[in-house]
Amino acid sequence: MKEIFLTFARYNREGNQTVVSMLNELTYEERDKDRGSFYKSLSGLLTHVLGGTVFFLRMFKTAVLHNVAAVQALASLEGIVIPDGKLSEAQWKQLTADIAVADDAFVNFAAALTDADMKAPVKLEWYAGNPPSVPLSFMLQQLTVHGTHHRGQISQILDSLAIANDYSGINVEFLS
Question: What region does 56 belong to: left with phi over 0, alpha with psi -120 to 50, or beta?
Answer without folding.
Answer: alpha
